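User: My advisor asked me to double-check a structure prediction for Amino acid ABC transporter substrate-binding protein before group meeting. I don't want to rely on an old file, so could you generate it fresh from this sequence?
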Amino acid sequence: MLYKTLVPAALTVALTACGQQQNAAPAASAPSVSAAPAHPEGSLMERIEQKGTITVGTEGTYAPFTYHDESGKLTGYDVEVTRAVAAKLGVQVEFRETQWDAMLAGLKGGRFDMVANQVALTTPERQETFDKSEPYSWSGPMMLARNDETRISSLDDIKGLSAAQTLSSNYGEMAVAAKAKIVPVDGMAQALLLVQQKRADLTLNDSLALLDYLKKNPESGLKTVWQAGGDKKVGAGLVLNKGNGEALEKINAAMNELHQDGTLKKLSQEFFGTDVSVK
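Assistant: Sure, here is a fresh prediction for Amino acid ABC transporter substrate-binding protein from the sequence you gave:
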């Protein structure tokens, strides 16, 4: 399963779709990529060796991962990580914005070399077609409650408490399994509002989505009361077509250097207020 489809929809602030665990909202305003392939198949390694330009598919509408800032510049955690990888490889990077639903099809069709859009290849079908680099972000379940909440320190503690959740999401299923009382909502924004209004005790969601919300809303009155351990987290990386093994090795080496020199930690703190590049 793609990680992008695993993050619940609609943040109140800039984060357009972190509930896309179930309902990945299409980026309607993002331009489609051209029908013609950007480069001949299998030439990624040649372009890296020749210090050429690699093309990267991304949405450009999925903050804080890939979006346009107030000046119109394309930025975001995934975008800046990709630029840092390209710098390590000594190549230029050209981003091509496209709708999420067309992104992997565009990659498979050769319209760009890589995808940078919070993708985690977790299904056999995707793994047969694509390769993923070393992860640059890790995400798993997280729970928020009001600042005055003292009853919750683990998932077991929510039995009998009210959880604002979308019924179709895996987070809703998690709350049901923990025997919480479900308060149905349409998305994450509504869930957070109900907790703030004391109409629900808590909400479960993706950690990157909630970290982004807390960073942008420091006066929200909400806090983290539980977060899943590293064994429950899923890593997102740059995604390539199969058959680019040599290029993937170079990309992985660049990503490991960015881990070691602190670049990923710095970018994580810039966009999330904490280091999401490690489990």
